[in-house]
Design brief:
By secondary structure, the chain is α+β, with helices and mostly antiparallel strands. It has a domain of 125 residues: Alpha-Beta Plaits (2-Layer Sandwich), CATH 3.30.70. 34% of the residues lie in helices and 38% in strands. The chain is built from 4 helices and 8 strands. The strands form 2 sheets. A 5-stranded antiparallel beta sheet has the order 3-4-2-5-7, with helices on one face.
Length: 235
């Protein structure tokens, strides 16, 4: 066999060996322990979202739309007087206009709605601004956590969850007769266990909330939970 044929034969053998190695079954990990640990921190919700809306109806779509625009423009002008980034942000919400039909499917008029949303961390500022708006009424109140507060609480819960994971891993390793462990893989997940608390309000007239009256609100608490899960190699 000449040199070129010998090299080719070696190459084929090498490729076959690599292919066999890749297709062969991987050894089953031994002494691997799956576990998880969680930690939960309860915190007062520091974010308020207050929605205000109005509805209009009439025979002419353009007229209804114009009325909604006028009401929304007036509300925006009033709200922006005391707006402050992060403390009270102002934005428009849903704006809809749709036909109203009779039983036989004919258009009998138009109905529309407009919404303004005030949200932020300054509850007093938000409720005071809402009380001064004359053209919209409060339709819903929702509480939540600001990004800053959520990040702070998640960090606290994460630290506790990690320590619990490590403690549990150490205890279980000793319980199974091993001296220690090494970390194989880990996943960290967090969630707001309580979720936002929402209060819907239906108001037929502005007299239910006078122009100088701030809406009384009180935030509740929510629980932020962090779970650490994974596997360890017992040693």
């Amino acid at each position: 066999m000449n040199a070129s044929k010998l090299i080719a034969a070696v190459a084929v053998f090498t490729w076959a060996t690599a292919s066999f190695s890749q297709n062969s079954a991987q050894p089953v990990p031994q002494n691997v322990l799956q576990l998880q640990a969680s930690a939960q921190v309860e915190v007062t919700q520091d974010l308020l979202q207050l929605s205000m809306s109005t509805t209009r109806e009439g025979q002419d779509a353009n007229a209804v739309q114009a009325q909604l625009k006028t009401a929304l423009d007036a509300a925006l002008t009033e709200a922006k007087k005391t707006a402050l980034e992060g403390q009270m942000d102002v934005r428009t919400g849903n704006f809809s206009l749709y036909p109203r039909y009779t039983k036989d499917g004919k258009t009998s008029g138009w109905v529309g709605s407009a919404e303004l949303v005030l949200d932020g961390r300054d509850f007093a500022r938000i409720t005071a601004a809402a009380g001064k708006i004359q053209t919209l009424v409060v339709s819903s109140v929702q509480f939540g956590l600001s990004r800053e507060q959520r990040a702070k609480v998640e960090t606290q819960a994460q630290s506790v969850a990690i320590e619990r994971f490590k403690t549990k891993a150490t205890e279980l390793a000793k319980g199974f007769g091993f001296a220690s462990y090494t970390l194989r893989e880990v996943a960290v997940n967090s969630n707001d266990g309580g979720g936002p608390r929402q209060r819907n309000m239906v108001m037929e007239s502005k007299s239910m909330l006078s122009s100088a009256e701030a809406l009384p609100v009180e935030a509740g608490k929510t629980a932020v939970q962090v779970t650490v899960s994974g596997s360890v190699q017992l040693k």
